[in-house]
Specification:
homotetramer, 361 residues, alpha/beta, two-stranded antiparallel sheet, 12 helices, globular, glycolysis (chains A, B, C, D)
């Protein structure tokens, strides 16, 4: 990690604390659990395993994850109701405690998703997106900080075709991410900047790399323009894969090499860490690809100064949610969840040997 | 150094050879001797020690440097006449051999300055500069390649005040550097991209950092736009110092921290190496600052993936030229020159302990 | 005005209606009354004449303006409560009618301010601003459209010093304006894009021109990127004046020439009209400067294709509000208000001969 | 045309003279004869009519054009040898006089092509181009000025496909044009900026409009950045047509509407004039399209402040060259040439009624 001995001007108050949180988020390959599904997103997840999207079910599911005690404790990004509204019910130890306090008591760093979702950019063909959530963001972020939150997450998305991401989408989303990041830092929150290049479409892995490079290069250039401290932020990056409608499958080694090439071309060394996202990938692929990235990074051991970690949602939650829906057995569900945490931890060291769906040996 | 296992598209032929040269240029702290003074620049140097700017004197001085045999052998950037016209005369071993062949026989990687110098940007206040040299550059570069040259150097300059470098200067010079770099790579030459932020003026070290960050960020963004392979290029960077008319002096530690911060914010890890330039600095300051950069980089040992080396002109040549002018003694001159090479080599490891002007202990 | 016979792709539905509204807004020099003061801004105005900022007073003041019947009927930008909440009380004819319907019945085109005010851009020195209001803008705009609103207004501001507007402020505000404009057009509202270069500070008229040119050039470039139809928008532009702390006073002719030069350098002919804003200027200066612009534009009669009109707040309302506060006399107040409308109408033709504060002859 | 009463800072010396030349170039629909074919281009033209590309033939052909006396006298862009080397031979009046002096004596404003042709941009797919000619441009331009030249021309080209012109080509060529234009103005030459969107390819007229808009918007934004005086320059613009391999034919009215829409969206009113180029079009189409543009501009008579004129090469020279090659009859050739000049003059007023290949009625 890069020395902090030079203080850029104008000084950011809380820079030291922000930097400590940023480092902690990517330390020891612990990862960041993405449990920040909006009410709409969690609905899809719950319904896919046959559960109703009730307040109770959402509460129980998150309660279950945050009270699952085991060695593989992640930081966690939450959705607003988890943080501000729900109380723990399942465990004896925490019964009645607000989940927000459960998280803090267990030494998990709490974060929150502050974006308000994507929307179409008018008159784009194919349709591209922008993200909302900047109105009143400083005040909201300060409220979250006062409630104990220490980092925030904001997601923008990019559509890949022969002619997209367009310059419009690239500039618009970079501007939005940069304003979110500088506002978060001003409020004492470490921004996790998540520019997701969607894996949906008919394109090669080379085209995906190109799209990532165009989007991320402009993003970091704009973060600099907005005076964002790179030492006090985390990048949540998509992996470089062929489009899901391309009829092509890449090996984990190809995905690892392409992803590492792309990150090394776009992410300045001052950024303390990068967490991979798994959106759109199966648990199995997410683990295999992420493992390959780390294996390669380890081999070329001076390859990058940033730490590589993960921030998975479905890859950590999916199987466990199935068990929960099928059995209702809290203990079994939590074990399933913790096993995924262990696999991710192994993959973060490039040492994941098992196979998703089966215990790793 | 970053893995080369992913091939970006469209493929650059010769990528492997280019990458090998780029790595060699920054390997083992050997450094790159900047002996590419144009006829106008060498005139000033020679006259400052009381020598006439004759073809003979220019030949002899360069002959002397390129035949100085010792353990600290650098790569070398040459001016066109050195490469294409002059023969060695001084040493028995190489007498009559074109300097170009002397360089190759001694295992020095030969490079050439391909820019044609800076010119004012019309209507800028204060006056800022652009650089010429792009007309016919592909053909010239191919000719140099055929003559054995393996890398090229191109310099742009930036003026620091409260309102500069202007967006105009930043964009213009980035565009020019990027076109030079992509053209060089197309011709088989590793580009040494030299965006020099001038140290002349009345500004703080923080303002220098800010100016560097603005210029270098846009530069790398534009290199990406021009599809320059970062694995196959070198950056020649200025150090972050207070302006020479600011009345302020920075400690080597401050210069080291500010320079490393700036580089870590702007230079992607895929770039194999960065060489420091010493223009405008005394031999003593150049060595002390460069040493501090490396000491700091070593301490935070994962601080960056790129190699840090040097490409000095005056700091390597200055003292030796004085000895040559005063004594005419070839051996003594070469010893003085080689001692500077040793000091630079020590500083490149953060272990320079002596003081310029005195032997290092 | 420019021919609409070519349909750019992708087609904007409602383009014809939008274009008709845009043309109507700048037709016949009628002008656009800026009565869109937020609750905070109207407070300052009311208190400056000794009136309490009560819901009643706000209602009465706006009631008074919208029911003032006379030959100089403007279009009007309103604040949300005017449009969505207040009813007319003063006139026999409209008593009890929602102001929204009064406006429509009187043939005034109703508009609404959709921005949510300016906020500081973090870490800018001097402090520069961004504007909020994009979250949920499409839905809000559609609601306004359904309530009869036909145009919207969104204001961003720029601070002028030797080093600002910064590239950050220029890019951020252009991006925001462009997204507002494309969203408004998608919802059927003609966007009045208002990039106000603030007149506060110590700068020359030449520096003001330079700042305007930098900001407006990037703005129109970004409007194009966002596929905004220029035929279906209006620009609300500040006038080019020396800073109010510069100790310099420009003649109306100088302001006219500088403003017209700036607009002719930055605003494409496809834009149907430009309305001048008077913020920060006295009633007297606003009228004199605006008159000079139109006089000059008329003399060089092919000078521009866009129509030049006005969108004044204080210059139309200020004196009338004083009369209202002092006398409570509705008729006298409305006459004062209508006289300003007449003066503005004269100035829009470059024929304003009187002096603010006195009847024009 | 726009008032010049405001002087932007920093002042451009010779602004008045430059502005007078710029206005003269587009006055009275006289047009600008593009006789600046490079030695390579004129070769193709000559050989297509069966003439050898000899120095003599080039001299005679240009002699013939420049001494053709008639009412439709154009300004003229020349190639370097015409201006600096060739003497008139054909006419009694001018025999032995350098063509440069013939041009001046006949009251034709002489211009020169200062670009050095297009070259590929490395690694672009499809291959896009950049233009060379900036090295030493200030000195060359000053030499031309001293030889009596009053304007210069510089051409860049853009390739249209689904994914091009790329951001790379757009930025690179805008940067080059802007530097050419500011350098020309500094040397006292009015720049004719020629960004030609090539009509070769398989694309719709809408895609052509889109490509033009993207390229020209960025061009004018960059001309502003380079402090180019818009009052003292001319734009040489391509017409918006479907690609020649699209299998689609547009009517003159469609081309006129699309071209006027595009120009009105991108060219600020301060630019005194736009000349259309005819490259790639037949004489017949060039005349019909250009006529339609002017007819439409006249109908919507306030449509634009800039003057619309033409700068044709083949459309003026093609038929005459055939006559010359076939008959060797100077008088007949000159009559053919002058008839085209008359047609163009008619079309510039939207009143061209005849058909190319036949006398206009």
């Amino acid at each position: 990690m890069i020395s902090q001995s030079f203080t850029p001007s104008p000084t950011l108050k809380n820079a030291d604390t922000l930097h400590a949180v940023a480092k902690a988020l990517v330390a020891d390959c612990k990862g960041v659990l993405a449990a920040d599904e909006s009410t709409g997103s969690i609905k899809k997840r719950l319904e896919s395993v046959g559960k109703e999207n009730s307040d109770d079910n959402r509460r129980e599911w998150r309660d279950l994850m945050f009270t699952a005690e085991g060695p593989w404790k992640n930081s966690a990004i939450t959705f607003e109701e988890t943080l501000m509204k729900h109380n723990a019910q399942l465990s004896t130890r925490f019964k009645g405690t607000p989940l927000r306090d459960v998280i803090k008591k267990r030494g998990i760093i709490p974060g929150i998703k502050t974006d308000k979702g994507t929307n179409p950019l008018p008159r784009t063909e194919p349709e591209e997106t922008t993200t909302e959530g900047l109105d009143g963001l400083l005040e909201r972020s300060q409220d979250y900080y006062n409630a104990g939150v220490r980092f925030a997450k904001f997601r923008t998305t990019y559509v890949v075709t022969a002619s997209t991401p367009s310059q419009l989408a690239i500039e618009n989303n970079a501007e939005i991410q940069a304003r979110y990041a500088s506002t978060s830092q001003a409020a004492g929150l470490v921004p996790i900047v998540e520019p997701e290049v969607l894996c949906n479409g008919d394109f090669t892995i080379e085209r995906s790399a190109e799209a990532h490079i165009a989007a991320y290069t402009h993003l970091f250039r704009t973060l600099t323009l907005h005076k964002v401290d790179f030492s006090d932020m985390i990048l949540k990056a998509s992996m470089v894969v062929p489009g899901d409608k391309s009829g092509k499958v890449a090996t984990p080694e190809q995905v690892g090499a392409a992803t590492l090439h792309m990150l090394s071309k776009t992410v300045p060394p001052l950024v303390p860490g990068i967490v991979s996202l798994s959106s759109g990938l199966s648990e199995k692929d997410a683990l295999a690809y992420f493992n390959a990235i780390n294996k390669l990074a380890k081999r070329d051991h001076s390859s990058a100064s940033w730490k590589l970690s993960f921030s998975f949602g479905r890859a950590l939650q999916g199987e466990a949610m199935k068990v929960w829906a099928e059995t209702g057995d809290v203990k079994k569900t939590q074990e399933t969840f913790l096993l995924r945490a262990k696999w991710c931890w192994e993959a973060a060291q490039g040492e994941y040997k098992g196979e998703a769906g089966e215990p790793s040996r």
